[in-house]
Amino acid sequence: MNKKYSIKDIAKLSGVSVATVSRVINDNGRFSEETRKKVQKVIRDTDYHTNFSAKNLRMNKSFSVGILVPDISNYFFANVVQKIEKILFKQGYSTIICNTARDEKKELAYLKMLESKGIDGLIVISGAKAFDISKLKTPQKIPFVCIDREPKDKQNTVFISSDHYQGAVEATNSLFEAGCKFPIIASHSRTSSSSSYRLRGFKDALAKNNITYNKSKNHIVLDSDNITKKLNQFLELEPQIDGIFAINDSIAINVLSALLKIGKSVPKDIKIIGFDNDPQDIHSYPTLSSIKQDTDKIAQVTVDNLINLINHTGITGESITIPVSLIQRESSK
Amino acid sequence: MNKKYSIKDIAKLSGVSVATVSRVINDNGRFSEETRKKVQKVIRDTDYHTNFSAKNLRMNKSFSVGILVPDISNYFFANVVQKIEKILFKQGYSTIICNTARDEKKELAYLKMLESKGIDGLIVISGAKAFDISKLKTPQKIPFVCIDREPKDKQNTVFISSDHYQGAVEATNSLFEAGCKFPIIASHSRTSSSSSYRLRGFKDALAKNNITYNKSKNHIVLDSDNITKKLNQFLELEPQIDGIFAINDSIAINVLSALLKIGKSVPKDIKIIGFDNDPQDIHSYPTLSSIKQDTDKIAQVTVDNLINLINHTGITGESITIPVSLIQRESSK
DNA sequence: TTGTAGGCGTTATCAA
DNA sequence: TTGATAACGCCTACAA
Prior knowledge:
homodimer, alpha/beta, 434 Repressor (Amino-terminal Domain), Rossmann fold, 6-stranded parallel beta sheet, 4-stranded parallel beta sheet, 12 strands, DNA-binding, transcription regulation (chains A, B), DNA-binding (chains A, B)
């Protein structure tokens, strides 16, 4: 049972001082090629690796970042979080995921825990209100970036977001192009940064097609209960409806099965398109058209910017918009 | 810009020694009620919190655990991981999630990274082969528990698993009870600890109903490509088939849409039941019957056992089986 | 009941 | 180019 090696052991074994070993390890400072080789051989032979607790203590870093996410069971969120985590891991960072369940109190509690864990940075995904880190009265504020959620103080952070507006425009246009005359939007009652952009895109696409958006005629609000009933009532009042842009795929799927129950045929009677390109879209019947967000790019851009903020390099105050793409399937043919 | 407080500051502010402060914080050792109050007040006033890097360094712990998971986009895995993470977070542990993508090389690479990060414990979820931690030649071996994956050396670990066998028996029986005469099982070609138990359950349920399992007549293997074509061929050869037990919901959903394309009616012509109770089950058409795993319990038991292993309390060498439950929906009525 | 002091593994400053 | 050493914040024998 050989104990773990420390930098001191490596120093002794290779006949140099700890300072030199540290310099070789971090490729920092000056040393001869000869000593580098000597030291590196010993490191390999002993299978030494650095103790991060010690390093972090000394450097006053934790190499961990927190992620605040409203609902990890949502496909888009889960997907982005997973990709962020992978990229961060490669760079030596650990990730602490906090599912706030859209609860402000929970969010604050998590924030305090994260703060006390000494995270180096924070990623905030979506959520109802603008994100206000000043709720924490930490001496030195934690660098953070926001995805799909406007920060209250844009000065020292970066705001990253898909082009929700453009996605909504394209989705709505695709309904018109498929022959729809009276499309509506289906949304939940929650508002968020991304959903309001999507709504705006829908309205503008309507306007381009000479329809004036009317809240009671072009917009149905559906939360998870009573969807079939509400939809049925709405359709009886507005029987001319022939297209639905659902603000996300979860709602789209719900609408789809509600329509089947009501006895409507999709896409013959009514066409549907969603948003997010959930994997289940290809298993619905009919398969669901959608707008795909570029989660790879979102994750990469997010991490790049956060690391820059942590290292005090790069620019802040930016807003970065990531393009989306239209995925045509059966439901809007 | 007030700097961060350390235990030394708290000591000075409350007029006691650092040792006493430490004792109060950890409720460890003896001290008077008076000093406790004094110290705790100062801690509250200063909003002090402990520096974990220092604590971990001193105590030779990291308060972090790794999770090896084959595919985080799978609902069951994601669900369990999320719940484990939440429970661990409450206990002060960070979680490092590693998506191995069922790749042995990746798994080993991740293991080494985790080892070098100094994790206190490891959770291993599913995977093809028995888990062999001896691939790592760490001096002190890392405590670990396995979910749905047999450990190579059962002595020093705990094996946790749903009752896959019983679930498969109940699923198959429910098909018989719904009137099926010739049920088959649909599986992927991968084998895993859980899938072989499910297969065994299916076979035994068949036997109980006086059918001898025959690989070519009662078993169809479907991977993600060509599902509709393969299923169609199989059904032409075996037209008497009237029930399908899919080894998981992902396959079940695929089978369902394939059947609809072929022109079969579910559940009239063929009944289906899956396994895992994915959330999408209630959005398929018809809704999908399934076997539900108790992820809350799995997560809790897993964490409890791992923490015990880390603290050298509790028993090892155990296998723990968690009950499952049948969820009847339209597809097997 | 409380205090003193050493040491965990690193990095960085200062000398050599 | 290298080495000695202080310091990071904490816990814990040992002493008082």
